[in-house]
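Feature request disguised as a bug: please show the residue count (128) next to PDE8A phosphodiesterase in the output. Example input:
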Amino acid sequence: ESVKNVLTSPENRILIKRMLIKCADISNPCRPLPQCIEWAGRISEEYFAQTDEEKRQGLPVVMPVFDRNTCSIPKSQISFIDYFITDMFDAWDAFADLPNLMQHLDNNFKYWKGLDERKLRSLRPPPE
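Example output, currently without the count:
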C-alpha cells in the first residue's frame, strides 16, 4: 500500500527512476562474487591507467589511492561499500525488498574484509 502511495506522484516516480539508475550504475558490490571480483578488477585497472597517465603527463593525480604500486583493492572496495553502497541499498531494499542483492552485498563485503585482514592488496588470495 505504501509503495502504491509513493508511486502516485509524478515527482516520486521520477525520483525513483533516478535512484534506480544510480543504483544500477554502482551496483557491482551487489553482484554474485565472481562478477563482483571481475568488475572490481576492471574498474581498478581503469583508475590505475588514469593515475599512470596523469603522472606521465605531470598532471595532478585525481585519485592517488589508485596508484597501482600501493593500492589495496580490498581496502578500496570496503571503503566504496561503506561510504556509498550500504546506505543506498538499505534504503532501496526497504522500498523494493531485494534479499538476493543484499545477500551478495554482505558476502562480497566479507570477502574483501577477509582479504584485507590477511593484508592482501589483490583481487584474490594467492593459490594455495
